[in-house]
Amino acid sequence: MHQPVLFALLGLSIGLVAGFPTQEPEGGKHWVLIVAGSNGWYNYRHQADACHAYQIVHKNGIPDEQIVVMMYDDLAQNEANPTPGVVINRPNGSDVYAGVPKDYTGDVSAPTQLFALKCTSELLNQCLSSRLCGPNDFVFVYFTDHGAPGILAFPNDDLQVKDLQDAITYMHENRKYKKMVFYVEACESGSMMNHLPADIDVYATTAANPHESSYACYYDEKRDTYLGDWYSVNWMEDSDAEDLTKETLLKQFKIVRSLTNTSHVQQYGNKTLAHMKVIAFQGNPSKYTPPSPSTNRPPITNPDLTPSPDVPLAILKRKLMMSNDIRVARGLLMEINVHLKYEYALRHLYALVNLCERGYPADSHKTSMQYIFKKCSQLSRINAQ
After folding, report:
1. How distant is the alpha carbon of residue 95 from its chain centre?
2. Which of 49, 66, 129, 185 has the most CB within a 10 Å radius?
3. Does the record's keyword annotation contain Protease (predicted)?
4. List of E strands, the chain
């Protein structure tokens, strides 16, 4: 065989080895950041998703000191909770709240998440820099909440796409991770990751593309709210059932994309990482025990899929249909009217975002944009209470 051919084959073999990343962080650790950005009983599903995600990574061998959970924590003891102290993520499901760390509760904000992600000192005694992040670490980030084009929502502020991408860039430049994976549950969530560079060892999947809603699921009549989000429960129920030492991130993506038939699940960033095993990010391979076949649960025949923006209205309509009290019915009708105005405002917001994306001058609609943002924010705060 000619020498040039030998060199070519040698280069190809080295390239193939380098192209598929290792499954274990050499000298590093596994870290998990779980964020539920909403509050209020209407938004039950987001914190239920977050609690379920914690149970998965905890059961799969990641110690609590390497898991950071951010959530408002107003469900377990909420006066609307018929099972005090218990949060579920599936009809007749088991409690997912027990044991969840209280790293950051109450008014979790966008800056708090960014400080946590960047591992900077602004968090004082709770700073993640005392625990997180090294150049050999694998990091898994799961976010669940409301969204809009270029925005992930928090109770009193928003996380802008530029700020999130800047934080990821900061982490890369300061060697805060070796490999990092994001799973993002929100409407228009693709808009937060569709500019993710492919050369910084970050891989992301999102519940929807940049222009569509994600969907709530599993309405519970006993609790009068939705228990989960469709993309989220699909990846988590898959992780509960599969042997994650054999399943790749790509396989999980394809399964979730197939099951999530109400929106277009997307993948972004360095897609080579998708060939890594799920356990490399959702657990510790050395401590992981695959689930037995008996743990598989039957699928829910009617998942009650509802666009996320329609959830408050759908809940109110269900309550109205079940009410026999005229005074209660009148109150529900008033609330329905408020939510209809809220949705009307959001439609105008999306129209203005489209104008911005098409390059129309900002001065022509800047004032209207600010006004609608303000009204949407005011109404969403009311709805969360």
Report:
1. 20
2. 185
3. yes
4. 30-36, 67-70, 138-144, 147-148, 151-153, 158-160, 179-185, 202-206, 215-220, 225-229, 266-269, 306-307
Average pLDDT, the chain: 82
Structure tokens, 319 = 């309550």
CB atoms within 10 A of CB 66: 18
pTM of the predicted protein model = 0.82
**Is-contact 31 109, C-beta < 8 A?**
no
Q: Sorting pLDDT into bands at 50, 70 and 90, what band is 356?
A: low
- Provide Rg for the chain, Cα atoms: 22
pLDDT at 236: 98
**Burial class, 363, CB count within 10 angstroms (exposed 0-12 / middle 13-18 / buried 19+):** exposed
Q: Which pair of structure tokens corresponds to residue 78?
A: 């909420």
129, pLDDT greater than 80: no
Q: What pLDDT, on a 0 to 100 scale, did the predictor assign at position 385?
A: 44
Hunting for tokens 């993506």 — which residue is that?
253
What is the tens place of the pLDDT at every residue in 136-169?
999 999 999 999 899 998 888 889 999 999 999 9
Predicted local confidence at residue 265, as pLDDT = 98
Decide: 178 and 138 in contact? Cβ < 8 Å: yes
The alpha-helical segments, DSSP class H, found in 269-363 are: 279-282, 311-322, 326-357
Count other Cβ atoms within 10 Å, centred on residue 364.
9
Q: Are 308 and 214 in contact (CB under 8 A)?
A: yes
- The DSSP bridge pattern shows strands 30-36 and 67-70 to be parallel
